[in-house]
Each structure stands twice: as C-alpha cells, then as structure tokens.
Amino acid sequence: MGESNSNAGIRIDSAMLEGRSREELIDDMALPFLDMAEQIEAAKLNNVSGEAWQSILETNLFLWRFISNFLPRHFSEDVTTETAGLLSKISDFMTKVTVAMADGGAREPELLDKMIKLNLNMCDQILAMRNNPDL
Fold first, then answer.
1. Class of 21-130 in CATH
2. What is the pTM of this model?
C-alpha cells in the first residue's frame, strides 16, 4: 500500500462492533493478512506440494478479492477512490499470480516475497487504524 496512509479513508461504523471493542475488530480484519503472509513464507521454505500451494494461493486470492470488493461497497463514503483503485490493482495482481502458479508455473522467490510483503503491508495498514480513533 506504498508510503501513503491508505487506510485514512476507512472508518469503522459503531454498528459493526456488536459488543466487541474497536481494537478487536481491527485485529480481526488484520489477522488474515498476517496469516497469509506466514503461510506463503512457510510454504516457500518447506517446499510444500502443488496441492498445498494451490490451496494457499486460492485462499490468498479470495482474501484480496473479498477486501477489494467489501471495503468500497460497505464504506463507499469513506474509502477514497485511490484506495479502492489500489485494492483492485493488488487483487488483480494476486489473480494473475494465482493463475500463473496454478498452471504449473515456477514459484519464483521474488514473486512470493512480493506477495508476502503485500499481505504484511495490508496487515500494517489495518493495524494503523488503532492509532486513529476517528476512523
């Protein structure tokens, strides 16, 4: 999500909390991205099977597709056009990577590292919302 504060346009509606703290909701939104980064790194280091890779890549793709559609639809007034566009670009990138690797393509370490960094960056961006109670 680059150097910009992409989450600056995302606000948490109090109705979403449903008895949970704001911090818990933020953690719940960030955790899947951390989990995916860890799974991709572990798979890369442990030379997992093609079937395991496919599962990891599909889950990662689903996560990015979900977030790129969910945020603009449910926070349409608060998600900037720039943020929505960036989420869409990352989601498209994840789609291309998943398709390329599903077709038996090599799992290039540099490409996997980019996927890991994007997931960690998204986790960071979401967790940064803890520092801004106005979001």
1. mainly alpha
2. 0.78
